[in-house]
Amino acid sequence: MNSHNGFAGHGHGHGHHGRHSGSWDDLAESLEHCGRLLSHCIGKSRGQGRILRILCEQGQMNQKELQEILRIQTGSMSEIAAKLENKGLILRVRDGTDKRKVLLSITDEGREWVAQRDDAAIRRQRAELFSSLTAEEQDTLQTLLDKLSEDWTQRLERERPGSGNKTT
């Protein structure tokens, strides 16, 4: 039996629809699962959209520079660029003067893709993702996520090599 009062059922019983709840592993698993779903729903297209918008504004760009602007890993950047190229939205070519460098440029199809997406459509898509939550639940979720984000950021900063504050 799952209950929202925190006492019935297994563990702390936060209504996880039949799953054993209350352990830190369950919380982390749920958060990871939601993150994957969110990434699938908007994360990938949002990242691809950012790349296309930057290329639209900047013209041809070194892949490494774009990767640094977006703060993503080399492998992730290569994977996204390959997907965009396969869709016909960008071109990837080796730099004529330095064959180690890959230059990216947007195609006419890519420019059309950018033109078809507007901020209002993105806002509607994001609102739909959270429509199963009441306004109060959305506010509570935002507060909790902000709290976790702040704590985890501080932990990472303390753990970073050279910070002098490493904890065990």
Secondary structure layout plus pairing:
Layout: H1 24-58, E1 61-62, H2 63-70, H3 74-86, E2 90-94, E3 102-106, H4 108-116, H5 119-129, H6 135-159
Antiparallel strand pairs: 1-3, 2-3
Helix pairs in contact: 1-4, 2-3
**Can you tell me the overall shape?**
globular
Q: Output mean pLDDT.
A: 81
Q: Which secondary-structure class do the elements indicate?
A: mainly alpha
What is the chain-wise order of helices and strands?
HEHHEEHHH
Terminal-residue CA separation: 38 Å
Q: Which segments are poorly predicted (pLDDT under 50) over 5 or more consecutive residues?
A: 1-20
- Quantity of strands, as a count: 3
Features:
168 residues; mainly alpha; 7% strand; globular; disordered N terminus
A few lines on this structure:
With 168 residues, this protein is mainly alpha-helical.
What does this structure look like?
This protein has a three-stranded antiparallel sheet with strand order 1-3-2. A hairpin with a 7-residue loop joins strand 2 and strand 3. It has 168 residues and is mainly alpha-helical. Helix 1 packs across helix 4 and helix 2 crosses helix 3. 60% of the residues lie in helices and 7% in strands. The protein has a domain of 29 residues. The chain is globular and about 55 Å long.
